[in-house]
Design goal:
Blueprint: H1 3-7, H2 12-30, E1 39-44, E2 47-52, H3 59-76, E3 80-89, E4 98-106, H4 116-131, E5 142-150, H5 168-177, E6 183-190, E7 193-201, E8 217-222, H6 228-241, E9 246-250, H7 252-258, H8 260-264, H9 267-284, E10 291-295, H10 301-313, E11 318-324, H11 327-336, H12 344-353, E12 367-371, H13 377-388, H14 407-429, H15 453-469, H16 478-492
Parallel strand pairs: 8-10, 8-11, 9-10, 11-12
Antiparallel strand pairs: 1-2, 3-4, 3-5, 4-7, 6-7
Length: about 500
């Protein structure tokens, strides 16, 4: 019996248990929670899925499978209203980074059937949603927790095996979290029961592992709203008084144009703002006689690391300035200002997302701290010494610009590799794995198995990145080199 036959049998409890397991496995696989060996491969309609394997030796994997199995004891009794899978960062166990909620309803009469097409649709929607999330930081550790929320008629003494009772305050905290704006929602209905999936993702995670500091550059950082721009202006005036050429890049232009609430309540607009700030810094860093001062709320560690990489790329020095204030001062300024400003909700969210810099971190050193908006001459002199008396950073392979990245070369690289992929796809449609002839190459492709389009495109991206770091002089060799590359990764997979 195939997995599809089991999933779509007449037993609705098994149906729900299977689809919940599939979705949990898909989330953990796409979010890279376990090694590839923790999963087994199965096909579901047009989809090739990775499911958690009960034969795995990883205790964490076995525990998750056990939790899911035990939770469905509550489903059979029609007690379970919601199953929440929460992902936490080890250093912040009080607040989840991501929450995935499975909402269950019973005795809901409907004519809808639990079809394979509906299930495929929800999985495709979920995959599209997950692929737009930034990966978790490899420098941080995360763990998974499961919570069961019950219907009111559930007996007080009831508790499934392996689950422990928790206070109602925790439930309300989870409910509060689930009201965030960024969410994925879908729905499956079967027989007299209803299964709903709702995924909520905390905004902070959108920038969890984005690469980000500057050049003879200065990175001004703040909790919010207490005069960071005034401090940036004072620093700018200090250098101008010494006849040193400066450029002050500020986020105020964009904030005034759209309004801070509109930008910081929309993850895509917030990313666009950071991209604009970074591009402005990058455009002006090549001027060796210029000090670039970035006046913006650079509260994300990842963004500061990107700016640090720019400093290395352009072989410059940099300084990080942290503007310190108390929460009380910030809130007073928020309430008393007459300008179009932050709402209290957005202000609080930004304040809570603040990631303090540390002088022990190499891309946040040297670090200067200014408290309560006061800036003394000794501090300004220290900033000047840090910019002009230190050695410039040296670029490495990951930050150094390469001569091959011209528009013409990149177009050729893109076109030739895409043509190879299309010819491989054409051969695979006829189940041809060996001796695949590729135009403009004397070498033929030999595959050891049938690769999906996603895998072939991943090989293509890997090859393009390799060529960027290892330039070749003759673009006529691109196709042959790509063929050799595919043969190599095919043999190793």
């Amino acid at each position: 019996m195939s997995s599809e036959d089991i999933l779509f049998s007449d037993d609705s409890i098994r149906n729900f248990q299977r689809i919940t397991g599939i979705i949990v496995s898909t989330i953990l696989y796409v979010r890279n929670f376990f090694n590839e060996s923790a999963y087994f491969c199965t096909e579901f309609g047009r989809l090739k899925l990775r499911l958690l394997s009960s034969k795995n030796s990883d205790v964490r994997v076995l525990k998750i499978i056990e939790y899911l199995a035990n939770s469905f004891h509550a489903f059979r009794k029609k007690y379970m209203r919601k199953l929440a899978m929460e992902i936490f960062e080890h250093s912040r166990p009080e607040s989840p980074v991501e929450v995935y909620e499975f909402n269950y309803e019973y005795n809901r009469l409907t004519s809808s059937d639990f079809s394979r097409e509906e299930c495929e649709k929800i999985l495709l929607d979920l995959l599209n949603f997950l692929e737009n999330l930034s990966p978790f930081s490899k420098r941080k550790k995360f763990f998974v927790s499961f919570k069961i929320h019950y219907y009111p008629e559930t007996p007080n003494e009831y508790n499934p095996e392996e689950f422990i009772p928790y206070e109602s305050s925790l439930q309300s905290e989870s409910d509060e979290f689930s009201r965030r704006d960024d969410s994925f929602r879908s729905n499956i209905v079967v027989e007299n029961s209803s299964f709903r999936l709702k995924v909520n993702c905390e905004r902070e995670n959108s920038d969890y592992n984005v690469s980000p500091d500057p050049h003879n550059s200065l990175n001004s950082r703040i909790r919010s709203l207490f005069g960071k721009s005034a401090i940036a202006v004072k620093i700018n005036e200090f250098f101008q008084a010494k006849r040193i050429k400066t450029l002050l890049i500020r986020d105020e232009e964009q904030l005034k144009r759209f309004g801070p609430d509109e930008i910081y309540s929309d993850a895509s607009k917030e990313k666009q703002l950071r991209s604009w700030l970074k591009s402005e810094v990058q455009r002006n860093l090549p001027q060796s006689d210029l000090i670039v001062i970035l006046d913006a709320a650079n509260y994300i560690k990842g963004f500061r690391y990107e700016l640090f990489c720019l400093s290395k790329q352009f072989k410059t020095t940099y300084v990080l300035v942290e503007c310190i204030s108390t929460e009380l001062i910030d809130l007073n300024n928020l309430k008393n200002t007459d300008k179009k400003c932050y709402s209290e909700r957005i202000f609080t969210e930004l304040y809570n997302r603040y990631e303090p810099p540390s002088s022990n971190v190499r891309w946040e050193n040297p670090l200067f701290m200014i408290e309560s908006g006061l800036i003394e001459d000794s501090l300004l002199n220290g900033i000047e010494a840090a910019l002009f008396d230190r050695k410039a950073l040296k670029p490495n392979k990951s930050t150094e610009s390469l001569p091959v990245t011209t528009d013409n070369f990149l177009n050729e690289l893109d076109n030739q590799t895409q043509e190879v992929i299309q010819q491989i796809q054409s051969a695979l449609r006829w189940n041809q794995l060996k001796a695949i002839k590729i135009t403009n190459s004397e070498i033929m492709i030999d595959l050891n198995r049938k690769f999906s389009i996603a895998e072939l495109n991943r090989f293509r991206r890997q090859f393009i990145n390799y060529v960027r770091l290892n330039p070749i002089n003759d673009k006529e060799k691109i196709t042959t080199m790509f063929v050799q590359f595919i043969n190599k990764v095919s043999d190793e997979s």
